[in-house]
Amino acid sequence: MIDWFQALLLAAVQGLTEFLPISSSAHLVIPSLVLGWPDQGLAFDIAVHVGTLLAVIVYYRRDLLALLVGCRDAARYREPNAETHMVFMLACASVPVAVVGLTGVSFIEDQLRTLPVIATTTAVFGVLLGYADRYTRKVSSNRGLTMPVALMIGIAQALAPVPGVSRSGVTITAGLLLDLDRHTAARFSFFLSIPVIAGAGLVKSIELARGDAPVDWLLLLVGAVVAALTAYACIAAFIRLLDRIGLMPFVYYRLALAGLLYWLWLA
What we know:
By secondary structure, this protein is mostly helical. Helix content is 79%, strand content 0%. It contains 12 helices and no strands. Helix 1 (4-17) packs across helix 3 and helix 4 crosses helix 5. The relative contact order is 0.20.
């Protein structure tokens, strides 16, 4: 069982890295692999994911409310609109990662949570992110968000359960390569995180309910709050600074992190 210091640090790391294109799973697995920390446990994992889910819902509350109102109007007048189209795109784009998460989670947990794998995926997908960011600067006109684009982003998101890939990183990369501008790619990526995080939380909650491990509710509550606050601040800063700094700082960070992980592995 993790102690309070470990819980607060892991919750802050979860919140800071969940929506940045640097892989939260890579950062969360490093303490256990390098420092010998115990696994944070299923209950804590659920708590911090609930925190990050609340953060993105609160940040995009107006947009999500507009989607709900649009869906209500579509049901009332029996006519699809832009809001129902967006909801349908989000639903379809969530299917690939759900399939991988439900069928391949055991293989990923047993075989891919290693330093060389995490270092390699951190570097490779960092380079892809850098190429996508540079590529968008050469695109004269950006494509709108359509169903084929959403499906391709959803297929890319299916790689997200692999540690080091980064869910937000791979979806933003795919969006940029499909000619979306940075803000449209990031916004759709964050919207797409809502069903993904909620679905993963539901599955893990069912697993937790079937077990009989003791639960420290105060630690879980504090962890969720810390993850929510840091995630909200992270989303706000990322969106505000996206055009000013671009994505290259995250690419350089990923490459530096990959180098550190390779060094730790060889050492």
